[in-house]
# Entry
Amino acid sequence: MGREDFIPHQYDSAKRQEIFAHFRAQFLTKTRDEWAEIFAGTDACVTPVLTWTEAAEGAHLRARSTVVHRNG
# Structure
């Protein structure tokens, strides 16, 4: 994301606030789904955080019959 200068400071607690503020500002510029598309196919451990409804209706949980919907 254009801040290779942060790499040597990734474990530096004195720089943590600055690094966090930068990435927070960057992530706020796009939606969750836009970021998921950007990171898709990359070598990064990124996955969207789903709402309860999205998770319950998602293909993964349906395939596993993990969520059971009951009436009443």
